[in-house]
Every structure is written in structure tokens, then in C-alpha cells.
Amino acid sequence: MLTVLMATYNGAQTLPKVLDGYCRLQAPSQAWRLVIIENGSSDGTGALIAQYRERLPLHLLSTPDKGKNAALNLGVEWGLHHCDGDALFIFSDDDATPAPDWLLQWERCATAHADYAVFGGAIEADWALAPPEWLPRLVPVGLTFGLTAGALAEGPVFPGLVWGANMAVRRAVFDAGYRYDTTIGPNGGAYAMGSETELTRRLALAGYPAWFCPHARVAHHIRAHQLTQEYVLDKAWRFGRGKYRQDRPGTFPEWSGVPRWMLTRFALECVGYLRARLLGDADAQFRRRWELAFLRGYFFEARRGRGEARKRVLITSYSGELGGMEMRMAQELRYLRLAGVDGSLALRRFAGIEAWAGRLAHEQIVVAEFDPPAFFEQWSWRRWNLLRARLGAAQRLRAFRADLVHIAWCWTNYGASALWLARYCRLPAVISVHNAFPAAEISDWHRPLLHQAFGAVRGVYAVSRSAMAHFMAIYQPYLPATARVAVIPNCVDTDRFKPGAELRRAARQALQLPPSALVIGVAARLSVQKRPHLLLDLFVLLRQRFPQLYLVLFGSGPLEAGLRRQVDLSGLAPYVVFTGFVPDLEKLLPALDLHVLMSRNEGFGIATIEAMACGVPAVATDVPGSADILRDSGGGLLVPPDDIKAAAALVGELLDQPDRRAAMGRQARKEAVERYSRAVVGRQVLAFYDQLM
Fold first, then answer.
1. Are 28 and 103 in contact (CB under 8 A)?
2. ∠ CA(67), CA(68), CA(71), 5° rounding?
3. Which intervals hold domain Glycosyl transferase family (predicted)?
4. Band of the pLDDT at 356, cuts 50, 70, 90?
5. In angstroms, what is the C-alpha Rg of the chain?
């Protein structure tokens, strides 16, 4: 199915020519339809479109809200509910007339390049009047009028050259959650340019390259009033505004929200303009005016601030790997967006961060690099690192233009350097505590710095009561009396993680497990903290009693190679499944009869509640974090952390009682929904942030 989407606002003057062009289209081999989204027109556009219902496979949507991107998102949602299979969504404008073979060419291109999901087509000029001679000579006509270069050959293309008057995107992209950014593009006023290029560049970052199809052609109507210098300079100003919106804070050193190199460029352009005036060079004057208009648009947005009325939160951490804390940090941004707050993540580099950042890019969640000198976390070179923090890292933190800094505290003092920086930059801060860590001595050198750092704190929450108790045992003397304190658990998407007989069968089939097997497993990083070797020892003991028992290890980590060797030497390789990292864990967790987490410590244990949401009874060692979830739970069981025989006896009883496991699974699902669902936790997070900024 080919679905053509077009937004229109007061398009009555151009639509007759455009829709007549659609009536002349040669029919492709597959079905197609035209979806027009009319958003708040006052010139009879809707009635005009209705006249073409008998001549075109036309569907008209209406919304009173102005904004091209909001209208296109509405059309995308409609299309997703009314098409099947690998549909192609083709986007065009209400002033772009297609060539007769337009749909045939799009069909050919999409079929020939099945490994591409984003396509750009040729956009030619349809001049209302012959352009003045100065225009093609001095003006970047492609950027100004949305035209593609005639010499652009078929093949891979820079995503910034895929423009909205003629582009196509496969349905799978929108199924994955991507949408247009509604804060940019035509909105009925003096808008910031770049609506479709923001999307295509974001898609490229997420691994969707673009392909150019020069034979899929439209003619873009250029009106008479657009052939003036005033119009061209206004477009340059809008382009500058859009460029600011698409740039990421902190990419370059800044002053007052503007990259310093652009200020230098502005000064040089001013000098160049004065020189051109002195020489009487009219062409050079106009070129300089264009560059200055672009820069003024950029500075205009910088003064207003990104998203003007939106507050901005920067979430950072002394992170070393991708785990539950990092997942919670991303979820925090999703919650904040519900309250109209913008934000980004700023983390140290670690293995796998690029792939994770790519997955977050489709949600417009930015993962920036930020690694301040560690004068708390590392004892050696602490004085030098403190000096580096004052001289360089503080400027880097300011470049993010945050209104509040959220520091995710993963262990003892891991996060204190960033907290001190927030105070040094006069930025308010909140702390989230993600682990139950042991007591630690504060050195005489660090003590006054901690008093300074905690002066920025407006609130602290921990993911469990145990984590809060451990944190307070160290830091309560430094915490301001006015700071808000709360316990807010981690959450689980109970719409993704859910039980079901068919899900269980599909999961076992995917893991190549016998349908009637008993299966235990764990979703955890294969690291020392999670003690997967202890789970393997438990499995060996249980196999003596349950020869049909299998073990599944969801995850990867530094202990994986050693665990594989241990399994091979024990002769149990046919009964142990190593999956590696699983991005869609909800598809495989229902395969388990029990989820068994043998950690030596936990901050909370997201995998435990994910298993519970899937209706899988949860077993965990009786340690802080896990005990917070399971001590009063009817959906799980705590076992001694260091007595493997006692643990084997308790788990064996569960494996021997299918009716008990089924009842526990139902209760586990109930508790996951009522205590840990995204909606429940989201309300707690937003209540915590209320009035903190």
C-alpha cells in the first residue's frame, strides 16, 4: 500500500493544480490512497478537497490545531491503523504537483532498495514568474525554496537533503515510534525551518540511512512574492532558528547559549559587509546579509532558549555500564516530558553507549558525553581534578543550559563530583539513589566540599527503602533540612511485559526449549554483583532432582566466557542457554517457570519486576533491594544469600508445585501493575518534581 500524506493550511489557491496532477497519475501495481490533513483553514480548503472525492482515493482528516508537523503526525497515526504489511508513506506539500509517473517511480525505488527505509525525491521549480537574474546567482535556491539539485544522482544521500515536499518513509519506521517534532516547522506564524530534516537526521543517527530517487519528481510552486530579497532574507533567518533547534547543547564551547565560533563568524560577516559597502559590491553585500540573517535567527533562538516556555533538566551519572540505573534515567526524561519539561542525558562513555543512544534517538532523547574530573570518586590526583573542574568542567556543564541537574547516585560517592559542579555553577540539583551501598568514611579533605555540594540539593529520592537508608547513613548530615525526600521504585512497562500462554509458547520456541521443560533463568548482567556462578551452582544441584530442568541466562558481561567454560566442563551445555544482550526481553521472559536472581546486593532489581509483570514468580536472595520487592510479596520468594543448599531446597519446592507457581504468577502480575507500572511510578516522579524548579 502506498499512502500519500499531505498537510494543508489555506491551500485553496494551489490545491486545484496539485490535485489535478494527482488525477493524472499513472496507477501503480499496488493500491494507493491520498490522505490530506486540513488544519484550521479559513479559505474553504476543506470544501475544495471534497470535490475530488469521486476522482481520487481520497481521505480527508481535519484538525483545528495549526502546525504542519502535528497534522502529519495525525495522518501517520491514521495510516498506521488503516494499512497492512510493509506500507510506504509518501509525503508531499499542497503546492507540489507530481509528475504522472511519480507513484510508479516511488514503487520501483522502494522495491529495488529494500534495505533502505528513508527516501528523498526530486523537487523541481514551478515559477509563478521568471526569477530575477540575481536570484539563482546569489541565493541558495535549494535551501530557500526546498528544491533539489538537478545533478543529484541516484544513491545514498545526506539526510539533510531529504525534504518534505517529496520524501518517503517505510511504515516500520513509524511502527518503531518515530514522529515529527511538533516544535519546529510551519505553524501558522514565523516558524523555525527544518521540520522534515530534523526527522531524517534523527533517523540517520538511529541507523536509517537515506536513498535519493531522482526519477520520483514533483514541481514545487514558487509564488511571486517569494522572489524578493526580503523573502529570501526572512527564510535565512528562519533557517538559523531551525539550526539552533536541531543543534545539541554542549556540542561546542558557548557564550550565552551561542557557540563561540559563531560569534566570531558573525563579527567577520559584519566586517565583510562593511567592506562590500565601501567597495560598492552589491552582490557581496547581499551574500553577507544572507549570512547575517541566518546568524541572527540562530541568536534569536538562543536568547529565547530552547523551547522558550519549557524548563530543562540534565540527568547525569558516574556511569560505567548499561544497566537498570541507565534505563531509569531515560525513563525519567519520558516522565518529565509529560509535564512539559525538556531534558537530555549526559554520561561518561562506556561499552554499548552508542547502540543505546541510537535506540533512544527515535524518541528525541539525546545522550551527550559528559565526564567531569573525579575528585570525589578517585583519591589520586584529587586536587588537580578539582582545579580542572573549576577551569573547564563547569563551563561544559553550563553549556547544557539546564535549569536543574539530576545526579543518579550509583555507589558511595559516585556522583558527588557532578553534584559539586552543579553547586559551583549555581544550578539546583536533585539526587536519585540506585543502590544500597555500605557505609563509608568521609575524608577531612572531602568534608567541606560535600557541605558545598549538598547546598545545591532540593530533593533526594531512592528506588527502595534500603537504598535510602544506606544513603542517609552517610549523607544525612550534609542534606539541607528543606530538601524533599521520597522513595520511588523503578517501573516496568506492563503493556510490554505481560503473561500469556501464546507468549510462553513463542518464547520457548525462540529459545529452542522443550514445551514441557522446567525452566529457570535470570535477566542480568553477567558480572560479580549478580553472582551468575552461584545460580549455575544452584542449577547443578536442582538438576539432580529435576532432570528436565533448563537454565537461561539473559544478558552478557565480563563473566560470560568463564561461565561458558564451566558449563562445557560440567557436560550441561545442552541444558544451559546463553542469549547475550536481549533488547526485546519481554518476548522471552514468559518462557521461564521461575526468575532467580542471586545478587550479592541490589538497589532495586528491575529484572525482578519485569518477570513479575510477565506472570513469572520471582526468586531472589534476601539482600537489600530485592528484599524491598519480595519481603511482603505473594508473587515471589526470598532465599538465603550464602546458603546454596537452603536456596536449592526452597526453589525445589516451588518447582515441584505447579499450582503454587501459577497462583504466585497471578499475584506477581497483580503487584507489578498496582505498584510498579509506568503510570503509577510516573505520578510519583512528577509529584516529586512539582515546584522543585
1. yes
2. 90
3. 506-670
4. confident
5. 29
